[in-house]
Each structure stands twice: as structure tokens, then as C-alpha cells.
Amino acid sequence: MANNKRMVRVFDTTLRDGEQSPGCSMNVAEKIEVAKRLELLGVDVIEAGYPASSPGDLESVKTIAGIIKQSAVAGLCRALEKDIDAAREALQKAENPYVHIFLATSPVHMEYKLKMTPDQVLERAVNSVKYAKKFCSDVEFSAEDAFRSDPDFVCKIFSEVIAAGALTVNFPDTVGYAMPAEFGGRIRYILEHTKGIEKALLSVHCHNDLGLAVANSLAAIGAGAGQAECTINGIGERAGNASLEEIVMALRVRKDYFSADTRIDSTQIYPVSRLVSQVTGVKVQPNKAIVGENAFAHEAGIHQHGVLANPETYEIMTPESVGISKKELVLGKHSGKHALRERLSELGFNVEEKALDEVFARFKELADHKKTVSDRDIEALVIGTTGAAPEKWKLDRWVINAGSSVSATSAIRLEAEDGGMREAVHFGNGCIDAAFSAINNLIGKEVALEMFELGSITGDADAQGEAMVKISYNGRRWNGRGVSTNIIESAIMAYVAAINSMEAEAVH
Ligand code: KIV
Ligand code: ZN
Questions:
Q1: Span from the CA of 30 to the centroid of ligand 1 (angstroms)
Q2: φ and ψ at 210, to 5 degrees?
Q3: DSSP annotation of 389
Q4: How far is the CA of 310 from the centre of ligand 2 (A)?
Q5: I want to staple 203 with a disulfide (CB 3.0 to 4.6 A). Which of 93, 170, 400, 507 is the partner?
Q6: Whose CA is nearest to atom 8 of ligand 1?
Q7: 81-87-92-93 Cα dihedral, nearest 10 degrees
Q8: Contact 479, 26 (CB under 8 A)
């Protein structure tokens, strides 16, 4: 094992490239929770959003910039003064502001999207970096679709933006087209032919259209790239971005091969993966490396036998090293707040005192309905109490009458912000339709249901039901999640949570 390990910088774009992909939207409160956990995870840069894209995005980048102290907070901008001005406003309070400017450099993007010549692109790139440097020292320039661009043109543009003050130049494989050896070769070429590259950091940003985003990022790191842009669980446009947890653990497990590492606290990986999955409503596939349900499961007898004799027979890293606690410890109704706090911390959750009171109250309520409260139950409680939008509406009570020979009827009563109760009754094509239609009636909005999923937190008979919904209204989308020992109630709670996210953004 080599001792001269170099540090690779981790630039997380879960809240920007991840969040902008369909079905991954988060409300501001959820983005704040994710940002806090990314900071705890130890990412070097948190790309918090794209401030010029909407007033809501500007506000959420601003809020995150005011909270995060250790990681740099980045705002994405097109190479336009108005975008850079929006980033400037959003990053005013950031301890470590970071401006990320992108402009496409591939022939197809320049001709058909930008309608600009290469010389115009070069001039725009340099001017925008100079403009951003007036207020922010940490500026990154990304050559969008760099992999399909002329390598010499990319070297030229990188040389000039570095001369203009860019501290990082990013080489994205925007459409996930590269092959690993080819991508590593391209990175070597860029490093050898870009003037002034020794004064800057070369970054990569890989998409996963051919399932190669992580392999390409690792090939680039092997070739000398100093920063990887990635997302938790690999969420992102189309087939996603390179997954942070896979890059980080590949570097750590194979330090003999890469002689490189990151500043990531890998024991925080699993909790942040669960949080992102819960707030986006996007499930992690069971066989996903590092964080999938089966990533550390050993079914075959011969494997189980080997792992019991020595875990190294079939495990190249321990579950604990990525924050998965294998010593399942069940709590029950006699467990106190201290035991809950201990278990939460073993599971990687550092819950503040006020939030702990709320989690504890919900834990007690759950323990009254359920014999044992497992780690998954606890995790669901914490995630359910963090990042939720203010409760404009709260479920007070519900009744549903349904059967094989009657139409389903629901009566739903919600408590409004002012403490007043509102009730509505509705028929429906099944329990869920009846309940959701009653809620629409009650709030006076024809909200559409885009996605509805029901599952259970654990596999036992008294398991808690977990519902995820995605709703849309006026062309925008929100997610909601509900957990209850009654499966119908979890669905109603999820719908109300999504409505609250919508109302928090004052949509009329
Ligand atoms: O995929 C891409 O090229 C991007 C840039 C904005 C870096 O997301
Ligand atoms: Zn991207």
C-alpha cells in the first residue's frame, strides 16, 4: 500500500443535477436536511441548486448557504451575467461560496442549442469567469458535453478560463457516452495539453446512460482527475449521475490500486442514502452496490458459512464501514429516551434535542401499537420528523367504508392551521380514490395523483405501512410520505404531506 495518498475532492450535486431529474423534487425543508447530512458526510462541495432557474431555487440555495459552514456551497449558472448575478445573491451568506458556470463545447450543442461559433463560446466562457471572479474567488468552469467535444478545443477553453481565474475546470460526459479506458485516456490528454492546469483542479462529471458513470469517474481519477462530481444513490438526469457512495468506497476499498482517498466519513453513507430515498420517493434498487437492501446479505448456505467463519471470505468491506448497523437491537415500549438516543446515534442519526423529543413521542406511540420497534422503524420515525413542510393541514380523523359490493365512501377531517376543523365526504373508485378525492374537495383544489406506492417498513405482521405519493398541480410536482401501523392511514398521511409541501410554496 502506497503512503503518498492524494485527496480527491467530492463535489455533490444531489440537490442540483439529482433534484432536477423527473420525480426527484424536494421541498426546501427537505433540501436543508439533505444539505446538513451531506456536510456531516464530509463532502467538499454541495451544489445546492441553480439560482437563476426559479425564485424558489434561488431562495433554497440562499437558505442552505446560510446554514452550511464546512462544505463549500455552489450555485450553478449558465455563462450569462444574469445567472451569475442570481448566484451572487444566493451565495451572499455562504462561508465558502462557489460559482459553477457551464457552457457547451461540443459541435452539436454549439450549433443547434447555443447557435454560437467556437470563438464566441470561448469568449463567452472567459468573460463569464472574469465576471464571477469579481465577487467569488472559487469559480468552476464546466465544458458541457466535453467528452463529445474536440479535445483540443476543450484544452484551449480550459487554458483560457484558468488564465481568467477558474480554480476548477470540469470535464463532463453529459450524455454518458464514454468508455472507461477511453475516458481515462482523454483525461490524461487534457492534463497534458491544458496550459496552467497545475494551478487548477481537473474535475469530472459523468452520467450513467450506459451504466458506466462510476467506472468512468474512477478511470478519470486513476488518470489524475482531482475532483469527482456525483450524487447520493446516483440519482440524476435520465439514468442518473455517478453514485457518490460507489466512488468513495471503491477508492477506500482499493486504496492499494488508486493510492487516493476522499475526506468522506463513510459511516454516514447509509443514513444519507436512506434520507435521499425517503424525501425523493425514489427507491434504491435492492442489488445496488453499497446501499442496496441486499448489498451485505448472504443467502447461499456456503456463503453464510464462510462469512460466519471469517467475514473477509465474501465481504470486501464491512456493513458498519458504510453506516449499516448489523447488530439489530429492538426497542420496546419500556425503552427510554436515553436508549433511543443511543440507538439513533449508532444508526448514524445525530438528532437535536428538540427533534429528539418529537421522535421519542412518536416512538412511544408506535411502541403502543407494535410489540418491537426495529432499526428500520426508528429510521422511518426520524426521517418522518425531519424535512417536513409546515403543517397547513393535519389529519385529524378518517373513516372509510368499503367492500366488494359497495362503492367506497370516505369521510376525512383535517385540522387547518388556525385550529379549525374541515370535513369532507366523497365516493370513490376504491378506498384511496375516495380518501384523496375528499381531501381535494376539502382544500378546494383539483390536485392530480401522479404516483402512489404502498410498502411496509419491516416484514412482520404488525409492520408499519409506508406510503409514497407524488402529486401535481398547475404543472408542478410534490412528494409526500406517510408511515402508520394502519396502511390506509399511511396513504392519507402521505397525501396530506404532499399537499403541505405544495401549500408551503403558496401555490394557488
Ligand atoms: O451533465 C452536465 O454536463 C452538467 C453540467 C451542468 C456540469 O450537469
Ligand atoms: Zn450533469
A1: 23
A2: -110, 20
A3: P
A4: 41
A5: 170
A6: 17
A7: -170
A8: yes
Full residue range of the structural domain in which residue 310 is found:
296-324
pLDDT tens digit sequence for 342-398? 888 877 777 888 888 888 988 888 888 887 888 888 888 887 776 677 889 999 999
203 alpha carbon, closest ligand: 1
Q: State whether 306 and 275 are in the same domain.
A: no
Residue 296, C-beta contacts closer than 8 angstroms, at least 6 positions apart = 315, 319, 324, 326
- Alpha-carbon span 137 to 143, nearest angstrom: 19
Domain check: are 64 and 93 in the same one? yes
Quote the ligand 1 centre to 281 CA distance (angstroms): 23
Pairing of strands 465-473, 448-456: antiparallel
pLDDT in tens, 254-312: 999 999 999 999 999 999 999 999 888 888 999 999 999 899 887 677 777 777 888 88
What's the CA gap between 24 and 281, in Å, rounded? 7
- The answer to whether position 285 is within a domain reads no
Count: domains in the chain: 4
Q: Which residues contact 65 (CB under 8 A, 6 or more apart)?
A: 48, 73, 75, 90, 91, 92, 93, 94, 97
Is the pTM here over 0.70, yes or no?
yes
Beta pairing class for 72-78 and 97-104: parallel
C-beta atoms surrounding 299 within 10 Å: 7
Whether 306 and 378 share a structural domain:
no
- The answer to whether position 453 is within a domain reads yes
Q: Is 102 in the pocket of ligand 1 (CB under 6 A)?
A: yes
Whole-number Å distance between alpha carbons of 490 and 471: 16
Residue 447: closest CA among 400, 485, 495: 495
